Amino acid sequence: MLVAKETELRRRYDVRWRLTGLATRRAGWVADPDGLSPLPILNGHWPPRQPRRDVREWLENARADVLFEASSLVAQTGQPAIEHLKAALELDAHAITANKGPIVHAFRELAALAHEKKRKFLYEATVMDGVPIFSLFPLGLPATELRGFSGVLNSTTNVILTEIEKGRSFEDALKRAQSLGVAETDPAADLDGWDSAVKATALAIVLMDVPIKLEQVQRIGIRDLSEDKIRSVRAAGMRYKLVCRAERRGDSVACTVQPELLLASDPLANLEGTSSAIRFDLDVFSISIVEHNPGVEATAYGLLADFLRAVQP
Predict the structure, then answer these.
(1) Partner of 310 at 20 to 30 A CA spacing, among 61, 126, 160, 270?
(2) For residues 45 and 229, what is the distance between their CA atoms, to the nearest angstrom?
(3) What tens digit of pLDDT does each residue of 127-141 get?
């Protein structure tokens, strides 16, 4: 995405970038403050790898101004992403993440550290990929109160339910989701509702300013739904979807994640494939946003948008 948008970033925003470090579990770690060539790396031709090292040493060697953190979600702890982001901020780099865990487990700590260091901690890609969910409120909806939200926010379960409706078995539907790149090799976080619960918690923490804990979300996944039941209700004009809901109750927020039987007329029922949607209920009106069949490019765009927000004056 950075390569594709390089000319536009330079011409429209006067932003230039240089790739100075990469670190992955599979491919290894590299750092070069003079810059790494991204195109060979994208085609699988890496420069000589360096021994795995402490993330701080790696960031220092890369002389990073910005860290993109895209490690896998560990729902119960938010690690190691939290430590990666803390290291970046403490070393005076902006911290941008696609990982929801740090919001759930360390949002206030990271936001305070970013403020102290006069750097940005940004996380737009954590929910609905490139859709401007978090940035919408301070910029587009000032002086509103968010009273609740409801949405279908997990692509994997949406693909599985859609494919079962078409006649596939649960196992084949899961393989289809994995082939699309939306499901992990271990899909338990999706199937058991953890991914949706983490997203609901993150939204409540940031947008409703309530320090809700992940364990407070009432969570039920889709494993106990039978294939026959999924198909029979579809034939009757209804659909099962894994729905996240949050409702403000005084000083607290009640969050749930569970399969819900929706009428075909419900906008959430009409989502196909990897599409997702959310409805925000405000004190002045309600607004709904739909993301149609996003791929990995949508997540990359969310990170790119945060990059521009971080580095522009």
Answers:
(1) 61
(2) 48
(3) 999 999 999 998 899
